[in-house]
């Protein structure tokens, strides 16, 4: 058995690299209409596997980071994913913190805890000087998380998969000397 690579720990959580054994639990999240309420559609199993092939396995190889499994340290259960991927923003491609939790685990501050740990990891371990989160204008729970994690917010326009122009919030954290 290959050891699972642990990335970081916070009070209640471990973030570690995702493995193929995690895919059924992640497929449940991405196939659930409530969890995907602020996305264009739910993803079936194949689309979820493609998504993690690109943003987890492929990204680990190419960039050394990606979406990671969010594990409850006490129970060992997978609560969702949280991690850092390269995303298009207004004028560049840049590292972004994203998070998705199974709905039974909402409202307990897990996304805030995991995303804060990713921000600190980005600055102190990865040596980044800026990290962002992209959130849709309707996704209030995610905005609450991003407000706690980041320093300021802008708005930008991007093309969605259907070629339409859509607006997104861009939450930004920048490393200051002393951070
Ligand atoms: C966005 C998400 C990750 C937030 O995770 P979380 O761990 O619940 O975050 P928090 O516990 O810090 O709560 C954040 C806000 O979520 C909202 N929230 C909490 N429990 C909720 C529930 N059961 N139902 C709806 N909203 C809820 C609250 O507005 C809360 O803000 P508050 O602290 O002012 O009450 C989670 O809702 C989720 O996985 N959503 C689906 C995927 C998604 O949209 N990801 C973000 C893409 S940008």
Description:
There is one protein chain. By secondary structure, this protein is an alpha+beta fold. It has one domain: Gcn5-related N-acetyltransferase (GNAT) (Aminopeptidase). Helix content is 29%, strand content 34%. The chain is built from four helices and eight strands. The chain has a five-stranded antiparallel beta sheet, sandwiched between helices. It is globular, with a radius of gyration of 15 Å. Coenzyme A (COA) is lined by residues 35, 38, 80, 99-101, 106-112, 135, 139-142, 144-145.
What labels would you give this structure?
Aminopeptidase, single chain, 179 residues, globular, 29% helix, three-stranded antiparallel sheet, 8 strands, alpha+beta, 4 helices, binds coenzyme A
**Whole-angstrom Rg:** 15 Å
Q: Total domains, how many?
A: 1
Largest sheet: number of strands, sense, barrel closure? 5 strands, antiparallel
Helix share, percent: 25-40%
Instruction: Give me the side-by-side strand order of the main sheet.
Output: 1-2-3-4-5
Strand-residue proportion? 25-35%
In sequence order, what are the helices and strands, one letter per element?
A: EEHHEEEHEHEE
- The number of helical elements comes to 4
Would you give the CATH topology? Aminopeptidase
Question: How many strand elements?
Answer: 8
Low-confidence stretches: none
**What gap, in angstroms, lies between the N and C termini?**
38 Å
Shape: globular
**Attached small molecules:** coenzyme A
CATH architecture: 3-Layer(aba) Sandwich
CATH C-level class: Alpha Beta
């Amino acid at each position: 058995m290959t050891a699972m690579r642990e990335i970081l720990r916070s009070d209640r959580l471990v973030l570690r690299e995702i493995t193929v054994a995690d895919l059924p639990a992640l497929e449940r999240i991405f196939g659930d209409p409530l969890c995907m309420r602020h996305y264009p559609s739910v993803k079936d199993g194949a689309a979820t596997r493609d998504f993690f092939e690109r943003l987890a396995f492929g990204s680990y190889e190419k960039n050394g980071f990606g979406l990671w499994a969010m594990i409850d340290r006490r129970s060992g259960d997978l609560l969702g994913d949280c991690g850092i991927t390269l995303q298009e923003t207004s004028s560049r491609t840049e590292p972004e913190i994203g998070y998705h939790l199974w709905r039974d685990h909402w409202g307990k501050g897990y996304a805030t805890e995991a995303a804060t740990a990713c921000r600190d990891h980005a600055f102190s371990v990865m040596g980044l000087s800026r990290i962002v989160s992209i959130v849709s204008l309707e996704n209030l729970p995610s905005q609450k998380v991003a407000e706690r994690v980041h320093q300021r917010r802008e708005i930008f326009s991007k093309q969605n998969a259907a070629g339409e122009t859509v607006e997104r919030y861009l939450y930004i954290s920048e490393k200051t000397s002393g951070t």
